[in-house]
Amino acid sequence: MKLTLTSWNINSVRLRIDLVAKFVKAARPDILCLQETKCPDDAFPLKRFKRLGYDHVALNGQKGYHGVVVLSRLPFEQVDVQSFCGKTDCRHVSAVFGERAGFRDPITVHNFYVPAGGDIPDPTVNPKFAHKLAFLDEMRTSEKLKPAPSERAILVGDLNVAPLEHDVWSHKQMIRVVSHTPIECEKLNAARKAGGWIDTMRVLAPEPEKLYTWWSYRAADWRIADRGRRLDHIWTSDALADRASTIKIAKDYRGAVRPSDHVPVTATLEV
DNA sequence: ATGGTCGGCAACCGA
Question: What is the pLDDT of residues A128-154, one digit of tens each?
Fold first, then answer.
C-alpha cells in the first residue's frame, strides 16, 4: 500500500487548527506529525481531528512551549516518549504501526522537535546552544534510534538544523548562524549516520537543488527574498530507503493568513 | 551592521 506521512511545525495547534484542517482535507496524509503544538494534552483539539479522520493520536504536549503529536488514520500499537538532556520538555513521541494497521512488518514513526538553540553559536556562553548540541549527541547515542538493518522506521520532525550547503539560501552568509554552523551540521549528520538513517528528501531532490521548509517571520517579503532554510526532515531506515517515491514541500502554506513559519513536508512511501 | 515578527500568556521567554 501507499503510505503518506506529513511533518509540520505548526507553531500552536489551537491557533492554526483551521489551517491544519484545510491542509489535511487537501493532502489527506495517513499520518500527520506536528511539532510546537504549544498545547497541554487535556486542551488538545481531539474532536476536530477525529472529524477530519484522525482517530488515533499519540500526544506529548505541555503548556506554552514545545509539544509534539502523531495523528493517524491508521491504528497504531505502541507509543513511546523519550526525554532528552534530563529535561521534561516534550520534544519526542513515537508510535509503532503493526498488524492493526495492516503491516506484517511493523513501521515505527519517530516525531522530533529539536531545540532551536538561541542566537549565539557558542555553547560556553549560550546554554540554549549547549542544550541543542547535547540533544543531538543524545539522538546519536540513543539505542531506540538505531533500527536494525531489516527494521522499518521513519524519523521526522523539526530538527532545527539545515545540514547541507543548499539547505540554506546562502551557505557563506549562514555559516555562523545557528541552524547552519559546522558543529550542528556535523552532529546532526553523526546522529543520522549512527542510526543508519537515510535523508529521504535529498535522495529524491539531490543537491544543488535548493530545498527550504522554513522562512523567517521577520523577513518583510519572505517570498521575494526567499531566504529559507531546510529545518524539517524526513529520514527512513535502510529497510525503507528505496520505498519513498515523492516528497512534497507545501510552500504555499507559508503564504496563508496567519501562517506558521514552517510548511508541511509530505512523503509518499510504498510499504 | 542592525533590527526585523511571531505565539503563549499576561512578564518576558522561546523561536
Answer: 999 999 999 999 999 999 999 999 999
Which pLDDT tens digit goes with each residue over A19-47?
Answer: 999 999 999 999 999 999 999 999 999 99
* Cα–Cα distance for residue pair A43/A62, rounded to 1 Å: 10
A14 touches strand B (CB under 7 A): yes
> What's the whole-model pTM score?
0.98
- Between CA A182 and C1' B13 the distance (Å) reads 27
Å between CA of A232 and C1' of B6:
19
Per-domain residue ranges of chain A: 2-270
CATH T-level topology, domain A2-270: Deoxyribonuclease I; Chain A (3.60.10)
Chain B: nucleotides below 7 Å from protein CB are 3-9, 14-15
